[in-house]
Amino acid sequence: MAIITQIGRKHWKVRLLFLGMYAFLIIGGATMVYPFMLMLSGSTKSSMDIQFFDAFPRFLRDDAWMFSKHLEGLFNERLQDLNAAYDLDEIAFNKLNLYGAHNAKLADAWTEFLDGTELPWYSFSGGYLNTQLSKTIPSSLRNFKKMLKQQYGSELETVNRQLETEFVGWYSIFINVPSYLMRREKPMDTRFNSVLNEFQATLPYGMRYYFSPQGFYKKQFLKTQYSQDIKLYNSSHGTSYGSWDEVVLPRRYPENGTAKEKEDWTNYVRGTVALHWLRVDAEATPFFHELLKARHQNNIRNLNRLYETNYTSFEEVPLWQEPPLSGMALTDWDSFITGYKDPVSGKFYEVPIKMVRFESPETMFQDWIVKKHGSVEQAAASLNMPWTRVADIKMPQLDLHLSYFKDNMRSLRWEFVTRNYRAVADYMMFHGRGIYNTVVYCSLAILTALLINPLAAYAMSRYKMPSSYKILLFLMSTMAFPSMVTAIPSFIMLRQFNLLNTFAALILPGMANGYSIFLLKGFFDSLPQELYESAQLDGANEWVLFWQITMGLSKPILAVIALGAFTAAYSNFMFAFVTCQDRKMWTMMVWLYELQQSSGQAVMYASLVIAAIPTFLIFLFCQNIIMRGIVVPSEK
Questions:
Q1: 541 & 452 share domain
Q2: How far is the C-alpha of 614 from the C-alpha of 445, rounded, in Å?
Q3: In 466-526, beta strands by DSSP E
Q4: How many other CB atoms sit within 10 Å of the CB of residue 348?
Q5: What is the pLDDT of residues 368-412, one digit of tens each?
Q6: Are 300 and 312 in contact (CB under 8 A)?
Q7: Which of 39, 384, 403, 555 has its CA 20 to 30 A from that of 115?
Q8: How many CB atoms are located within 10 Å of the residue 488 CB?
Q9: How many C-beta neighbours within 10 Å does residue 377 have?
Q10: How far apart are CA 590 and CA 603, in angstroms?
């Protein structure tokens, strides 16, 4: 009984030992898998969540977080545009808390208004056009490039000629999204912008955001001067507002406002807000003609030359209902709104401030709502909104954006999962010959490694030269020096032979490898000599002995050599860049390095994942051969 108990205790000790070993193996595996999961997770992120290290992306399981991430892409990573459009004071996209229920009636009303109203092209911007922080290629930008290829073909020279652009490659096409709210951000009347406007007009309403001069007035003009504390604003303006929500941008000069409110409104109109949101009453026409006479020295010919018109007098020049987009006409209109002092007479010309009014998508929507429902009160009751005055009616963009997000949540998630990988693929496929050069380089590296190294090892193994060990010692000593030590002599030698910027420069220095020859010789020595003797008795020559017997039985070690040659060639960056500085000869690693210098961290993660795929596939292919060489002989 005691013996049985003792045996049982030993079994329990063995079991505990194995459990401990398995636990260590699991922990060791986790230390390898967890960093890989972090890299996969990081490859799907943007500037909003790249600083959070989670193995499973939060946006895949948290709808509220995903909506904040969507808003980051929708507003082209411009938080100031979101604050102006929604009339908010958010400090970061990852701090947003806007996900929830939406007013479906209000979203439908906004959609109906947009369907029936012809708004100017500069009144909105499309979403997912630019990622100034993440530095990747969002969906709308990809679709815009696709539209250019459909219209003008895949030749970029044709696109540059037709659109008067100077893009050096498809990868370099970008869209600098302005906000069109500040005076300095003027709409550009160019061919490229015309095509871009046509593309943006095809975007669904849920993928657009409309500019709000009122939100910009509060967020960027008032709060930057008087802080976000409404009490400070009240104390400086002599008002008694309960919150910033009660502060509005009057359409016209606030004659009933305080002196400070009048001053703010005037300064905003004269020097801050973009000109295309302002309209001037017809009564200001004489003032406009007086300014034109002063600016053009009372000579209508000067104006006609600059305007490319044929007016006979200044009185024929119309007072524009919509500001011009470029040229001297825009400069004159800017002087009319801002004010112009004649350097000769010293007289000051400007539009009377009471003759200026605002016209924007917001004001047009307010008028449309009131006209449709009859009054503000009836509109508020019908749409379940707490409106008491026309100025309270805001563009319900958040409601529409929420509705669009909930309807397209799955496709938006897929966009964030794949867009960084698409950016890397787009860069590699349409950027030089990196893939072709890498395939040729790796193929030649494997071919030469499987030819030169086995020949050298076979000679030393078969003929038992007296100096074999000295040769092996010499070959092994090359491993004592880092590769960068030999890079400079190799570069000088290749330059003397005029081999730079060729595949020979990449292949020749690494064609023979001392460590590979050492491994092959040891493996060849282990092969039975009786096989060679039997083959020689049957009349086999040296080539048959080498190729059919030695190489045929050495597939496992050859797989190891091939894997090492591929890994060395595929991951070769510095030497490949030094010896092949011509961009036409750059390999994939060099192109990826350049991509990483101009891309965000998430794109860098995605490039590393993509770069690891070929190595992983080659390893799987070689692993079967290696394992057969290990397992089969042991079974025999």
A1: yes
A2: 15
A3: none
A4: 11
A5: 999 999 999 999 999 999 999 999 999 999 999 999 999 999 999
A6: yes
A7: 384
A8: 10
A9: 11
A10: 15
Q: Is 125 helix (H, G, I), strand (E, B) or coil?
A: strand
Q: Which residue range forms the structural domain that includes residue 409?
A: 58-212+395-426
How far apart are alpha carbons 2 and 314 in whole angstroms?
A: 121
Exposed / middle / buried, residue 459 (Cβ in 10 Å: 0-12, 13-18, 19+): middle
Closest CA to 412 of 177, 70, 113: 70
Considering 376, 407, 426, which residue would you say is the last residue of a domain? 426
CA distances from 140 to 76, 77, 578, 615 (A): 10, 14, 37, 33
User: How many C-beta atoms lie closer than 10 Å to residue 493's C-beta?
Assistant: 13
Same domain, 306 and 401: no
Tokens 């909105």 -> residue = 124
Measured between alpha carbons, how far is 618 from 615 in angstroms, rounded to an integer?
5
In angstroms, the CA 337 to CA 324 distance is 13
Q: Quickly state the pLDDT bin for 635 (edges 50, 70, 90).
A: very low
Residue 284 is predicted with a pLDDT of 95
Point out the domain boundary residue: 378, 410, 426.
Answer: 426
Question: From the DSSP assignment, how many helices (H) and strands (E) are in the chain?
Answer: 30, 6
Retrieve residue 118's tokens: 């012809």
pTM, two decimal places: 0.85
Distance CA 90, CA 95 (A): 7
Residue 508 and residue 513: Cα distance in Å, rounded? 11
Bridge pairing between strands 348-349 and 340-341 = antiparallel
Give Cα 33 distance to the centre of its chain.
27
Tell me if 219 is assigned to some domain. no
Residue type, position 23, single letter = A
Q: What's the token pair of residue 146? A: 């696709």
In the three-class reduction of DSSP (H, G, I as helix; E, B as strand; rest coil), residue 284 is classed as helix
10 Å CB burial of residue 135 (0-12, 13-18, 19+) is buried
- DSSP code, position 188: P
**Cα Rg, the chain, nearest whole Å:** 36
Cβ contacts of 230 within 8 Å, gap of 6 or more: 241, 242, 243, 244, 247
- What's the rounded Cα separation, in Å, for the pair 223 and 233? 9
Is 376 among the domain residues? no
Q: Which amino acid is at 235?
A: S
DSSP string, 56-94: S-GGGT-HHHHHHHHHHHHTTT-HHHHHHHHT---S-GG
The answer to whether 461 and 549 are in contact (CB under 8 A) is no
Plot region of 130 (φ>0 → left; ψ -120 to 50 → alpha; else → beta) = beta
Work out the average pLDDT over 432-450: 91
